Amino acid sequence: MNLKTILIHLRNQFPNDNWGQFLINDSTINWSKIIVSGHSQGGGHAGIIGRYHAVVRVVMFAAMDFNG
Q1: How far apart are CA 55 and CA 52, in angstroms?
Q2: 47/43 Cα distance (integer angstroms)
Q3: Ordered per-residue pLDDT tens for the chain, 68 residues
Q4: Residue among 40, 62, 61, 58 nearest 49 (CA)
Q5: Tag placement on the chain: N or C end, fewer CB within 10 Å?
């Protein structure tokens, strides 16, 4: 399961919780409203996501940066 599928499910199951704000449409994630974080290897993944998508913020806990 990917993030887009999860957001669509949450939007449909909990319409009053405004999960739809994180989707532009059913095929596009609204990255400009998302904060990505992770710990250790997940922090590195958060950094990579932040490099390829214009997210609000990236939070990396106990993670290395990727200088490549």
Answers
A1: 9
A2: 6
A3: 899 999 999 999 999 999 999 999 999 999 999 999 999 999 999 999 999 999 999 999 998 765 65
A4: 58
A5: C
C-alpha dist (Å) from residue 46 to 1, 58, 68: 18, 6, 16
Q: What is the rounded distance in angstroms from the CA atom of residue 30 to the CA atom of residue 40?
A: 25
Structure tokens at 59: 């939070």
SS3 label, residue 29: strand
Tokens of 42: 């997940």
DSSP per-residue codes, 46-62? HHHHHHHS--SEEEEES
The residue to which tokens 């974080």 are assigned: 37
Cβ contact 40:61 at 8 Å? yes
